[in-house]
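Table 4 source record.
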Amino acid sequence: MTGIVTLPLVPLRQNYNERSEMISQLLFGELVEIHEKRDLWLLITCLSDNYKGWVDRKMIKILEDEELNSLLTSQVFHVCVPLSICKKTSSNETMFLPGGSKLFAIVENECIIANENFKVDTSDIFKSNEINVKQIIQLATQYLNAPYLWGGKSVLGIDCSGLVQVVFSICGIQLPRDATQQVNEGKDIASLSKAQAGDLAFFENAEGNIIHVGILLNSKQIIHASGWVKIEDIDDQGIVSKLTGEYTHKLKGIKRLI
């Protein structure tokens, strides 16, 4: 059974309880595979990144086979600004869609999802074509000063891997959800001196485990979510806090995706 998100942002939780840890968020237009129903909850896998968790069943719209097939064969667009105003045509109610939200088969500023018409601002959407570094950096810097939120994927709260995933997904590059998974993507870059804008830098803890990721603006600066989304200096050792001048994250490696 397949469902779709028709709300701006839906929390994905570790267990079937509203007090359970939020491990990620589902964005408007994302498809989910439903595995199990328990009380008022659904165990789902997000089909964008294969991330699994529990969601409130009221927040997921179940799709008929015909509706699903129509969406799967439609052209997909992405919201490319931090927040975009969208209206339900039937009720004229307003929603604010976060960056990375998916829209299907837009005709005359409207798309149809689960038999509901949504009116969108086409200047806020992006159809992935040829990906370039400039687009990646422009999208990432739109999230500057967004507060850090574990599991978050919007300008109202985002974590380090969420920032990376959303920015690249808008450009048509779908990455896994967590930094520990993202590090397995792309091409290894030997050193920071050989890095370029748009490369991903990964950071480790004392045990050598990946705990953080950010997007390089150049070989000396990185944008990342730590406390909030910010730009800080980086060298061969790691990230240097612009508040204290101390190292906050130890550099593990660099990957290139574009």
